[in-house]
Amino acid sequence: MNIAPGKNAVSNIPFDQARVDRLMEEAGIDVLLATSKHNTQYLLGGYKFIFFAAMDAIGHSRYLPIVVYEKGGPDHAAYIGNRMEGGEHQNNPFWTPTLHTACWGTLDAANLAVEHLQKIGKTGARIGIEPGFLPSDAYTLIRKALPEAKLIDATDMLERMRAIKTDAELEKLRTASELITDSMLATIAWAREGTTKAEMIEQIRREETNRGAHFEYCLLTLGSSHNRAASPQAWKKGEVLSIDSGGNYHGYIGDLCRMGILGEPDAELEDLLAEVETVQQAAFSKVKAGTLGGDMISHAEGVLKASKVAPYTDFFAHGMGLITHEAPFLMTNHPVAYEGTYAAKPLEKNMVLSVETTMLHPTRGFIKLEDTVAVTETGYVMFGDRGRGWN
To answer: Where do the Peptidase M24 domain residues begin and end (predicted)?
Structure first.
């Protein structure tokens, strides 16, 4: 399917065009070739092809969606997708004036991208690509076909593009967090003495799916163990349970952690979870638009350092959205390997953060809270704000 531009083709651009154009200008990019699932989904207004939602490989190659967007020229935008996506367009038309739903692999997709760049006169342009999401065969084809073009890493520009959430995105993130929280609390209430970790993980998968979320993972511990992988280990009376699950709603991530106990918590457990909560609240107290990201981190770390549980407890915070670790990047290589490029930048309204304090107690086990908050002008709004004590 090849649909040419029309007069009314770009009246429904699903993103802030002026902001994207500005970010492209700052990055020295004339035209984008977005090839990751999350960035193509963003640029298409939330669309992701269900057939390849959980896989990429097909035949001898893989699915490679491409959104071509020229700075200041939405009438030259194109979407290059799989042949089956023609039916998607018939039911819910894509906004891009040009559409090619003709591909089964990486090379035919890359060829169509090159042809489109030639058609719009951008063969010698500064082209923004996603190196981590552009297969080597597709990259080689583009490089050879467009020898005059300058290929620029657009990763940072695209991360900045997604950092400030729209109201619609915030609602999806709120819903995702609520569904995950409900599912975790339901799973804790369902489990009994003798229930295994593997059974609990399967149960939360069902709980999330039945609520309309897409289950992605569950990291779970029982008793004094710090091992979060699935196993036949069974829950025993008096033991703690930590349940850290991630799932998504329309592509947006819910990622939280809650605690359970088989019986009643003793005074020591109450005290330990209170120490975790104190660090969480210290971080929350610094969350508002205008605060430097690093200042929020250092304040929480300072409170933790003064705590008696500091030797075996860690604090971490990161951005949330279409992926689990995205802008704002607040910490460097802690524990996920990336640069904390936003530590010296102010938090902005409608950024979304995951805030987590993790205790690996030597005898009582894995004790953790992880919460999701959206930055506001005066503070924050928490999503899934319940079940934060001993359940």
So the answer is: 171-377
Pairing of strands 31-34, 126-129: parallel
**Sign, CA torsion 10/43/81/171:** negative
CB within 8 Å of 18: residues ≥ 6 apart = none
Q: Cα(272)–Cα(364) distance, rounded to whole angstroms?
A: 9
pLDDT higher than threshold 70 for residue 9: no
pTM: 0.94
Burial 107-146 (b: 16+ CB within 10 A, else e): bbbbbbbbebbeebebeebbbbbbeebbbeebbebbeebb
What are the pLDDT digits (tens) for 194-205?
999 999 999 999
- How much is the CA Rg of the chain, to the nearest whole Å? 23
Q: What are phi and psi of 251, to 5 degrees?
A: 95, -15
How many CB atoms are closer than 10 A to CB 154? 26
Residue 177 carries which side chain, given as an amino acid letter? Answer: S
Number of H helices, E strands in the chain: 10, 16
In the sheet with 150-153, reading across from the earlier edge strand, the strands are: 2-3, 98-103, 73-82, 66-70, 31-34, 126-129, 150-153
Question: Quick one: which H or E segment has residue 272?
Answer: helix 267-284
Residue 336 makes CB contacts below 8 A (sequence gap 6+) with 318, 325
The Cα–Cα gap between 350 and 167 comes to 8
Amino acid, res. 39: N
> How does pLDDT run across 224-276, given as a tens digit for each residue?
999 999 999 999 999 999 999 999 999 999 999 999 999 999 999 999 999 99
Q: Are 315 and 371 in contact (CB under 8 A)?
A: no
